[in-house]
Amino acid sequence: METEALIDRKGKERPHYLKNKNIIAYGVIGVIVVIVTVYVVFMRAPNNNINNNVISSNNSNLQSTAQLIANSRAAAIEQYQKQFCGLNSIPHSNNYITEYNLPSTCEMPLGILVDDQLAKVWYVSTKHGTLGSYDLATHKFDKELNIPVWNVRNIPTDNSQVWSVKEDKSGNIWFTDEKQNAIWRYSKSVGGFEMYKVPEMSKAFGTTYPVSIDFDSNGNVYFVGIRSPVLWFGNVTQMKNGTSNGIAKIPIPTNAFRGIDPDLISTGSIAVDNKRNVVWISMLSFPSKGEILRYNITSKTFHPFDMPPGLNSPVGVAVDENGNPWVTDHATSLFFMLNASDGNTTTYATSRASPQIYGVSDANSVPEGAYSLPYWIEKGSGGNGGSLWFNEHEGNKIARFEPSNNTLYEYWIPTQNRLWGNCPPNSQTCGIANALQFSSGQNGQKIR
Prior knowledge:
The structure is a single chain. The chain is mainly β. The protein has one helix at 48-84; strands at residues 6-8, 22-27, 98-99, 109-115, 120-125, 130-135, 140-141, 145-146, 165-167, 173-177, 182-187, 192-197, 210-215, 221-225, 228-234, 247-251, 266-273, 278-285, 289-296, 301-306, 314-319, 325-329, 334-338, 345-349, 374-379, 388-392, 397-402, 407-412, 435-441. The strands form 7 sheets. Strands 4, 5, 6, 7 and 8 form a 5-stranded antiparallel beta sheet that branches. A 4-stranded mixed beta sheet has the order 3-1-2-29, with no helix packed on it.
């Protein structure tokens, strides 16, 4: 049975015949900001003739300076759009994956959600600040919804990363907001947005950089930010639009990272195990040190699990039916299962990076250290033997792993972007699609 995936082919930050499973992935791009500041010094002259000449000269200098600034700004915007906007994108397809162009230019999508109830795919434009949706029944894009506050709309060379888009048990859509240091909730029933501000900011980065959201059995929110060693808890009955009301801070212990600059310690993601009332958290100092922590919601205590050598950059986390977290390592080609009882890890590897990514013809010519970089991971359906899905960031694939028989299936993403690859000058095909996030549906639809 062929199941296809929706892929946006936009530019990098840095497979599938399962009958009842749809996997939808998006590629998105990083950000370059160029700021040019020009200083002009004015001189006062001692007489009118000289003064007139100086005024004339200064007017000329002002015009010249203004033109330099305009030219520099135009060049910065052009470079930004060329690198990150996926201009003139051409969608491609293969036997398993079909790509679609989004309705607006330079959307820069990232987080994505498959809505099984409405048979839609939701995504956020990190550049334009819109919430968009694709109708799986009509195969058409709906009108995009403007998020009320999105400051980077007016900054031509900036965006606000939205890594996580999740649906709660009431059908509300939640998503993270990097630049405004907040999380959002969109109510599908009333069609309104609410913004909830994180109570703290990182002094070094100006934002905690919210990155991952999940929910407890009561519908309350847990989330983490890349730039803050904190597990945040949001009591939905107390949270109020435009404020930090109802959001509590739970500091994460960082003893294992002693001696490392605190600004280099990042929180990867979280996964709430409501069956066991615990929250799993990945922490890392890329690419030298990693740790997995389990937070017990009842006792309000943390239990750390140190990582063995070679697993230094854990990011994505998904919990299986036995309560064991499966984790991706975003500095290698490895993913692993952590035994929640004894702390032992069982490690697996993806296939080697394809020569096609590097524009070469044989595997021996692939650069040393060409890792696939597994990124985010989700548990599929199927009970105790349920499949696990993850995206191979640099491997340019969507992967499915079956723990029941230790089998890995990998599905090649048809688009390659030369701007995101170490490409020889004359190579015909090179680069990656830069699929940074994905979401899975469970209602058996075919996505075309």
